[in-house]
């Protein structure tokens, strides 16, 4: 963690050249370390002497999740006795990956979140309710706890307990910040209304797991619902379990910032070439200052874009936009390329749509087709009409749309037992094989 203080000083001084020199040094350090210690990278990287800094990073091969799933522990760079914590990915795209963290990695994780909470305006006088899972190898809940602890804030570790318990804690302890999933915040609001409760201490929410931002960084329908239900300022974040790092918003809400001393992000097209800022591509990350399982050009499979220009907060560190979809989830319907996230955002604009589930399947002609179920308690005919209109306008599609109750859709979202709700189900005959 030797560069944390120097990075902060560089960022404050706006020293771009010094910042780039630091990243160059961190990349070389990572390559040497991974090549010497990781069986996977010893074979994968080969001779890296031609790489002098981040400008040459394109010379290095992409690391793919499928390769790591074959031999997860070949990534490990430390002795087993040095492992302090093991976390895991959700496994929504195959076998989960186990990520081993050392004590220094845990410090890095805490520092990553400390910086984000500080950018949100959280202080040592704040009290935060962490209403997300803290167990089952889930890294995010632990990261938030460690970051808040590092900042000196008070923490209410409510975890993923039921709505009544969460509301009881909100009413009695009166935290000013909550970390939760957006749809759960809406559930809490409905439960509070039903019980005649009016928790009013919250000022901010860090919302995870579901996007609350549109391509223009403004709140999408889900984000607006949470803001209106709670009358609070909402912050969004994007985390990568494998990299033990998160990109997050500052108070300007102008994209998700990265920490240049912890991660180097790239946005690449299907041929592995960098795309211009503002253009969508796959997010590929290289981690810095990781001891347990460093990653070199790891393809996340998530499609997003780099935000153009400096942030309104004045920072010039790289920022990414919200995730548009997964690389393997790209659909081509009647000549139109679209990701499930775009369909979801369009559907949720319709008044009365509480939730939705999207299924892709293969038609008789071998083409991609889409079937949608929307959950609503409203007028089915009106909801259908408006949902079709938004999908046609925003996603340029006319999929089959059915209406169900929100509870029925909730069951579809929870199929498979993953801790993440699965809005999209891929039933195509060549699922995952589309570039």
From TrEMBL:
InterPro entries: AMP-bd_C_sf (IPR045851), AMP-dep_synth/lig_dom (IPR000873), ANL_N_sf (IPR042099). Residues 77-288 form the AMP-dependent synthetase/ligase domain. It holds the Pfam family AMP-binding. This is AMP-dependent synthetase/ligase domain-containing protein. It comes from hydrothermal vent metagenome.
């Amino acid at each position: 963690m030797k560069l944390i203080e120097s990075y902060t000083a560089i960022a404050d001084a706006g020293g771009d050249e010094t910042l780039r020199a630091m990243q160059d040094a961190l990349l070389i350090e990572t390559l040497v370390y991974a090549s010497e210690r990781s069986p996977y990278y010893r074979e994968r990287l080969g001779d890296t002497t031609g790489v002098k800094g981040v400008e040459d990073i394109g010379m290095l091969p992409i690391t793919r999740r499928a390769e790591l799933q074959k031999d997860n522990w070949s990534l490990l760079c430390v002795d087993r006795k040095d492992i302090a914590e093991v976390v895991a990915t959700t496994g929504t795209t195959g076998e989960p990956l186990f990520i081993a963290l050392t004590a220094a990695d845990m410090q890095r994780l805490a520092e990553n979140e400390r910086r984000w909470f500080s950018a949100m305006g959280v202080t040592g006088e704040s009290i935060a309710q962490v209403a997300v899972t803290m167990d089952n190898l889930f890294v995010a809940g632990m990261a938030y706890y460690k970051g808040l602890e590092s900042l000196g804030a008070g923490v209410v570790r409510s975890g993923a307990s039921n709505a009544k318990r969460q509301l009881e804690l909100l009413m009695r302890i009166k935290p000013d910040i909550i970390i939760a999933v957006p749809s759960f915040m809406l559930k809490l609001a409905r439960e509070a209304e039903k019980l005649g409760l009016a928790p009013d201490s919250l000022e901010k929410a860090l919302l995870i797991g579901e996007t609350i931002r549109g391509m223009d960084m403004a709140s999408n329908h889900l984000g607006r619902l949470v803001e209106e239900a709670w009358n609070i300022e909402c912050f969004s974040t994007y985390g990568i379990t494998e990299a033990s790092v998160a990109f997050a918003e500052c108070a300007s809400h102008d994209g998700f910032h990265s920490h240049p001393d912890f991660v180097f992000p790239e946005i690449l097209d299907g041929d592995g070439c960098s795309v211009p800022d503002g253009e969508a591509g796959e997010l590929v990350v290289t981690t810095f200052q990781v001891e347990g399982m460093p990653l070199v050009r790891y393809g996340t499979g998530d499609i997003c874009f780099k935000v153009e220009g400096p942030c309104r907060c004045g920072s010039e560190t790289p920022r990414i936009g919200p995730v548009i979809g997964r690389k393997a989830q790209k659909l081509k319907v009647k000549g139109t390329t679209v990701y499930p996230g775009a369909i979801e955002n369009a559907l949720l604009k319709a008044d009365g749509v509480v939730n939705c589930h999207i299924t892709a399947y293969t038609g008789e002609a071998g083409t991609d087709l889409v079937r949608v179920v929307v959950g609503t308690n409203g007028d089915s005919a009106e909801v259908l009409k408006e949902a079709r209109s938004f999908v046609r306008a925003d996603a340029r599609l006319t999929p089959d749309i059915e209406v169900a109750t929100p509870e029925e859709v909730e069951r579809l979202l929870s199929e498979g037992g993953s801790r993440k709700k699965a809005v999209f189900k891929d039933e195509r005959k060549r699922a995952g094989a589309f570039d």
